TrEMBL record:
Annotated HTH gntR-type domain residues: 5-72
PANTHER family: GLUCONATE OPERON TRANSCRIPTIONAL REPRESSOR, TRANSCRIPTIONAL REGULATOR, GNTR FAMILY
UniProt keyword Nucleotidyltransferase present: no
UniProt protein name: DNA-binding GntR family transcriptional regulator
Keyword entries, A-Z: DNA-binding, Transcription, Transcription regulation
Gene Ontology MF terms: DNA binding; DNA-binding transcription factor activity
Record's keyword annotation contains Transcription regulation: yes
């Protein structure tokens, strides 16, 4: 890999992370000159990064107007969750087959921390633990292709995920779903882990629609 390729890859990661964090919001223009200055990279590296992120579905290029952060509709967020249902179910099943004693301890520790976050009303802490749990399940599964797919899908729907995390009562509703995934994986119950993961994503889809309807009702 050449230095230029390393640089381009680093810029892709930096812009992707900024989009995932919400530093760049949907439909925000991504000006090459500004990004070049912000990330200390050449215009060519930034341009290459925007092409790569467009291929990932995070950025869209508009003729004669440059690039902008792609907005994901509710319908697309639901579709993404439906794909996640299948792939995360696979990862949970594989994780149940491969989980080690030490990994089971890590999963159970996350579960205990999630319980504490919910009891203390720590919504942001719960959201971070949620992401940590899903990341660990993917890691334990050993399914690298599935990991890559899920990372891309997560990045595309990050704004909807944030709205969902902030929805009143959502952590309390999702906690038992996450604990069921943890329990099945630690019990080496592949079928149970897959069904628990699918049940969680079905709940996510229902909640996405609920949050969207709630937003419509609160419009002036």
């Amino acid at each position: 890999m050449t230095v230029n390729e390393n640089t381009a890859r680093a810029v892709v990661a930096e812009i992707r992370d900024a989009i995932v964090r919400g530093d760049f919001v949907p439909n925000q223009r991504l000006v090459e000159a500004d990004l070049s200055e912000q990330f200390g990279a050449s215009r060519a590296a930034v341009r290459s990064a925007l092409v790569e992120l467009a291929n990932e579905g995070l950025v869209e290029r508009v003729q004669n107007r440059g690039a902008r952060v792609r907005a994901v509709s509710l319908a697309e967020a639901v579709e993404i969750s439906e794909v996640r249902m299948a792939v995360e179910g696979l990862c949970a099943a594989k994780a149940a087959e491969h989980v080690t004693r030490e990994q089971a301890k890590q999963l159970k520790a996350i579960g205990r921390a999630m319980r504490t976050a919910v009891s203390h009303g720590d919504v942001l802490g719960y959201s971070r633990l949620n992401q940590e749990l899903h990341r660990l399940v993917r890691e334990v599964s050993g399914q690298r292709t599935a990991q890559d797919v899920l990372e891309r899908l997560r990045a595309q729907s990050v704004r909807h995920q944030f709205r969902l995390a902030m929805h009143p009562g959502r952590p309390s509703r999702s906690l038992p779903e996450h604990l069921a995934i943890i329990d099945a994986i630690c019990a080496h119950d592949a079928a149970g882990a897959e069904e628990a993961a699918r049940a969680h994503l079905r709940s996510v889809i229902a909640a996405l629609r609920e949050v969207d309807q709630s937003s419509v009702r609160t419009l002036p």
